[in-house]
Design goal:
201 residues; mainly alpha; Rna Polymerase Sigma Factor, Chain: A; Butyryl-CoA Dehydrogenase, subunit A, domain 3; 2 domains; 10 helices
């Protein structure tokens, strides 16, 4: 394995948004992989770092994160015939698999939950909360985010860090776009309340 997890954590060039043309081209790649497993490689190359990065932000051990990521893509390849195009990137389906694998690893205590965030992400979140960019606020948010329940932390990351649409978030979570909007609002409000609680301590 020649992937460097630290490098993946700081790279910000991954594309989370695709045009309709790009979505159609990607779906053609998926259909090709359904016919021939060897055609899965372009999808693997396109999304490995994104999926690994998501897992590594949750798991405190890089080797465990590598193992889980490998399992995600193995399951994706094995079950690709079940995939149905719904107008969002193929990564939405991969994230759903990754989410389940992370939950299972944590449930079986094969790994411990952690939150690894980039400086840029924390600053973006402070902007969303009108919290300012002082060092104290920065450190406070770093303390607060790990206290959120997993589902709220995921929502915050997908919506406010990665700027994903509620449609795609809904697809990842298996809920409607409107329900994703409701969850997004609730997660942000929960973060704000927790933030205020920490400030008052």
């Amino acid at each position: 394995m020649d992937k460097d997890p630290e490098k993946m954590m700081v790279e910000t060039t991954s594309k989370y948004h695709k045009t309709q043309v790009q979505l159609q081209e990607e779906n053609a790649m998926v259909e090709a992989a359904k016919q021939n497993p060897e055609r899965f490689e372009p999808l693997y190359n396109a999304y490995y770092e994104q999926i690994f990065r998501y897992i590594y932000q949750r798991i405190d051990d890089k080797e465990t994160a590598f193992d889980i990521c490998s399992q995600v893509f193995l399951k994706a390849l094995t079950n690709i015939h079940k995939y149905e195009f719904r107008g969002v990137p193929f990564s939405s389906w991969l994230y759903r698999i990754a989410q389940n694998e992370v939950y299972e690893a944590l449930r079986q205590e094969k790994a411990h939950r952690t939150v690894n965030l980039e400086t840029r992400q924390v600053r973006d979140m402070l902007d969303e909360m009108d919290g300012g960019h002082s060092e104290d606020m920065f450190r406070l948010l770093e303390r607060v985010l790990p206290e959120l329940p997993e589902e709220d932390l995921q929502m915050i990351e997908w919506r406010f860090f990665e700027k994903r649409s509620f449609r795609e978030i809904g697809e990842i979570l298996g809920i409607t776009e409107n329900n994703a909007k409701v969850r997004g609002h609730r997660s942000l409000e929960k973060l704000k309340r927790l933030f205020k609680t920490f400030i008052q301590e």
